[in-house]
Amino acid sequence: MGCPWLAGDGGNGHFYRVVPFASAIRWTDARSAATDLAGNLATLTSAGENTFVHGLLADERYWRIVGGQSFGPWIGATDEVDEGNFSWVSGEPWGYTAWAAGQADNGGNDYDFLAVRVIADDRIFRNGFE
After folding, report:
1. Residue range(s) defining the domain that contains residue 85
2. Interatomic CA distance for residues 71 and 20, integer angstroms
3. Over the stretch 32-89, which tens digit does the pLDDT of each residue have?
4. CA–CA separation, 20 vs 78, rounded Å?
5. Quick one: which of 95, 96, 105 has its CA closest to 126?
6. Please, are residues 2 and 17 in contact by the beta-carbon 8 Å criterion?
7. pTM, two decimal places
8. Residue 55 CB: number of other CB atoms within 10 A?
């Protein structure tokens, strides 16, 4: 099941589908799963889009708790090709960001992909590794 973000609601007309997995998966596997469904990992190019997508993630089955921290689904951004310079997999311009404090920290050149997080009700990005 998916949900459109209608232009009449301030959206971009894109269609969003959250796909739960029984266990954590790698970013490359998440991207493959999205493209197998003729889609892409979400690209959050505005504060409104970030808020809309986070609203679709209210179900706890979309989140993983690791070391007492909650990590949400992967999103469609990577700096794997050009370290330190993230880009959206859709080719949309990189401009809007919602980095968590101290991010993107790159984890010693191992953190090439983005996931969403919520900390104290802030809807943020965090880079990570597969």
Report:
1. 3-128
2. 13
3. 999 998 999 999 999 899 889 888 888 888 888 777 777 788 999 998 888 888 899 9
4. 21
5. 105
6. yes
7. 0.83
8. 12
